[in-house]
UniProtKB/TrEMBL annotation:
Species assigned in the record: Zavarzinia compransoris
Keywords of this entry: Amino-acid transport, ATP-binding, Nucleotide-binding, Transport
The protein, known as: ABC transporter ATP-binding protein
GO function terms (MF aspect): ATP binding; ATP hydrolysis activity; branched-chain amino acid transmembrane transporter activity
GO biological process, one term: L-amino acid transport
PANTHER family associated with the record: HIGH-AFFINITY BRANCHED-CHAIN AMINO ACID TRANSPORT ATP-BINDING PROTEIN LIVF
Domain ABC transporter: 2-238
Family stated for the protein in its record: Belongs to the ABC transporter superfamily.
Record keyword Transport present: yes
Family matches, as InterPro entries: AAA+_ATPase, ABC_transporter-like_ATP-bd, ABC_transporter-like_CS, BCAA_Transport_ATP-bd_LivF, P-loop_NTPase
UniProt cross-references to SUPFAM superfamilies, sorted A to Z: P-loop containing nucleoside triphosphate hydrolases
Length: 244
């Protein structure tokens, strides 16, 4: 589904991605972990067309998307929930969800399919149904994250990319959001998720990539990564004390 080869990207000549390979198959749930500055956000922004790569390949369903605009990438079914959520805080929950339909473009199904998709979002996050007429900016951080995911779902994604969906969320809300991601994946949706907390990432994903300084330094099944001595020492050991 998503295939990345030898990808490089930079900011004003400073390399952020240095020859990165990654693959997300149909219906996979893949977690990206790594320290601050490893390039996780840059990778997501490059995949979704917000940053032009210097070199390398990015293909989605076999099509080269390196020079494709972000809205066309979303139309193809690759939808990005950026870090910081970026919901429209002056608009209601319902209006934010309706805007998500635009991402589907030509793939947009009729009103009946959109209504079914809205029901799916409300089933996944019942609080959004309760608050559908509320101004989005008045939601809690966790509810805003649910809205950001809900809005992305309204674009009928085939691969959903999420950048740190747990950032700033209370542990109970993290569990709710991750449980929702697990349910979506079980229904066939491909998911690529950046998660700062390695323990959570490995619990969530079936497959994981560890990024450091713009490169993949390790990848494998979550069980294998969780047993890797370097990961245990660098990520799990120190995080065990702070993990919720
Ligand atoms: N807009 C920017 N301008 C210049 N350099 C940037 C910019 N954004 C990121 N960088 C640099 O690119 C590298 C990768 O950053 P990136 O934000 O992709 O890492 P990350 O793994 O997502 O880290 P974090 O967990 O802190 O978000 C870092 O060295 C960072 O300082």
């Amino acid at each position: 589904m998503l295939e990345i080869k030898a990808l490089t990207a930079s900011y004003d000549g400073i390399h952020a991605l240095r020859g990165l390979d990654l693959r997300v198959g149909d219906g996979d749930l893949v977690a990206l972990i790594g320290p601050n500055g490893a390039g996780k956000t840059t990778l997501m922004n490059t995949i979704s067309g917000l940053i032009r790569p210097d070199q390398g390949e990015i293909s989605f369903d076999g099509a080269d998307i390196r020079r494709v605009s972000p809205h066309r990438i979303a139309r193809a079914g690759l939808i990005h929930v950026p870090e910081g959520r970026q919901i429209l805080s002056e608009m209601s929950v319902a209006e934010n969800l309706d805007l998500g339909i635009l991402a589907a473009g030509d793939r947009r199904a009729g009103p009946a399919a959109a209504a079914r998709q809205r029901d799916l979002v409300f089933d996944l996050f019942p609080i959004l149904a309760e608050r559908r007429w509320q101004i989005a900016g008045s939601l809690s951080g966790g509810q805003q994250q649910m809205l950001a995911i809900g809005r992305a779902l309204m674009g009928f994604p085939r691969l959903l990319m999420l950048d740190e969906p747990s950032l700033g969320l209370a542990p109970m809300l993290v569990s709710q959001v991750f449980e929702a991601l697990g349910r979506l994946n079980a229904s066939g949706l491909g998911i690529l998720v950046v998660e700062q907390n390695a323990r959570r990432a490995l619990d969530l994903g079936r497959y994981a990539y560890v990024l450091e300084r713009g490169r993949v330094v390790l990848h494998g099944t979550s069980e294998d990564i969780a047993r890797n001595p370097t990961v245990v020492e660098s990520y799990l050991g120190t995080l065990a004390a702070t993990a919720s």
